[in-house]
Design brief:
By secondary structure, this protein is mainly alpha-helical. Helix content is about 55%, strand content about 5%.
Length: about 300
Amino acid sequence: MGPTASGKTALALELAQRFPVDLISVDSALVFRDMDIGTAKPDKATLAAFPHRLIDVISPEEAYSAARFRREALAAMAEISAAGRVPLLVGGTMLYYKALREGLADLPPANPELRAQLDAEAAARGWPALHAELARLDPQTAARLHPTDAQRLQRALEICRSTGRPMSELLAAGQEGEPPYRFLSLSLLPSERSALHERIAQRFKAMLLGGLVEEVEWLRRRYALKPELPSMRCVGYRQVWEWMEGRYSRRELTERGIYATRQLAKRQITWLTNSISGEVFDCLAPDLGARVAARVDAFLA
């Protein structure tokens, strides 16, 4: 696990060449078909050589959940283990990883009417105001969410209003315990945050040069998309959509995309340091691959 641009995919491919592992994606953006550039999805040649489970699972019109991830990841892990190989989970969606390890509460289903009401309130008052409301109702959840993290704020408030109970309380009550596997958890964290920020900036600029805008244009022609869908709330796609609506200039698109990606990385690092325990490796170290390979070799021995 690690923040965006920490080199998770490259490291996973290196390990896949050295050990009997099969890859499982832990990424809430890679589940969407046809969303390739903005998600930094491995290219077709890489996926052909190193197949990943749980990539290209649903259309951008659909929604995926942590509960579904847990169910499908455990099924994939069982198949891989039965074949005499080792599951290697790689990605940056920390909630999915936490759900896999601990289970999830039986949360209420989505309420379209309540979500529409929350969207309307956010349009009128702004998401930071709704974040302040969540801080009163569920301070534990609010503490780990950015004031503009619309998708997660909406879900947390939806649960508070529909059940009268904070989501953090429901999650704690529903923990199911670890599945029957021996885990080695590795956290890729940067020794210098500024170096990761530079990686993020260069990668987002490369995405734009590589056709991210054209990808979103094509997706909007092919699918019945709305800006509030989870797929279009993904970092990068949201900013391109807003730029297409004329909200800001091309230069601002680049700046906003980089900023949003850095905020995502900050949230991921917070998860890794506060909520998920793993052996920490410096993702900027030139010998990262060798260090991790030595640890995996010892684990599998």
